[in-house]
Amino acid sequence: MSTPTASGAQRAPWRATVLTLFPEMFPGPLGFSLSGQALNTGIWSLSARNIRDYGLGKHKVVDDHPAGGGPGMVMRCDVVAAAIDDARKVESEVPLIYMSPRGTPLTQAIVRDLAAGPGVMVLAGRFEGVDQRVLEARHAQEISIGDYVLSGGELAAMVLIDACVRLLPGVVGAESSLAEESFEDGLLEYPHYTRPREWEGRTIPEVLLSGDHKRIAEWRQAERIRVTRERRPDLLAKAGKS
Ligand code: SAM
After folding, report:
1. Structure pTM?
2. Is the shortest distance between the CB of 95 and ligand 1 below 6 Å?
């Protein structure tokens, strides 16, 4: 199935495959609102595959003790490789991503690249993580959603997929709203206001009620720079703005 783009051209659905021990967690939040509608209309597709299906023996074992000792369990390389290789039979093109606190921090630039491609295959870890050898042998790109540790990679996979899906053509109603969003040109977004005009003694900045589009655009750009300078000076430095 393909979906029409803004230009009328047909685009194949963007495909997300998740390798997880908890496939029943999907689509979860991804089945709601914009991403859910886009899933229903075929703009993207989702396949959650159970790593347990590739587990060993009667008990479908997927983990073992860490080599060298220490706490916790590690997902076995042979089991995870079998899950990846089977998924690759139907999904040979998409990049393999392992959600990991040790990975490259996820940014809007990475999201843009992934959304522009055919899709993603996302490996969600559990326990202490995955045997390093399978990550290397299957060329997994490690991506982190932040400097904190989750109990599993499923929520992280959802974050990554949601961020990609909303960039697909036809998902967000006014695509112009994407262009002004936080991180699009290295800045955070300006603040928003709506009715009522006055609330608990607080008013909307006068310029936004002026109807003067040039002044409004200038105010918003100035606010973007002010907010970014206050909250994320690192972004301002990267964007090369003084
Ligand atoms: N022992 C690992 C460490 O200290 O780096 C943490 C393992 S964590 C309990 C289990 C799984 O959750 C990981 O394999 C990974 O898939 C996922 N995870 C946890 N925090 C994450 C984060 N910040 N970003 C992406 N994935 C994360």
Report:
1. 0.94
2. no
Instruction: Assign 68 to helix, strand or coil.
Output: coil
In a domain, 175, yes or no: no
On whether both 61 and 100 belong to a single domain, the answer is yes
Mutate to test the pocket of ligand 1, among 149, 154, 158, 162 (most ligand atoms within 8 A of CB): 149
Same structural domain, 78 and 123: yes
Q: What is the CATH number of the domain that holds 142?
A: 3.40.1280.10
* Each residue's pLDDT tens digit, 16-56: 999 999 999 999 999 999 999 999 999 999 999 999 999 99
**Ligand 1 atom nearest 128 alpha carbon:** 1
Q: Report the relative pairing of strands 74-75 and 63-64 from DSSP bridges.
A: antiparallel
The residues facing 10 across adjacent strands are 4
Phi then psi dihedrals of residue 101, to 5 deg = -65, -15
The answer, yes or no, to whether the previous bond of 118 is cis (omega within 30 of 0) is: no
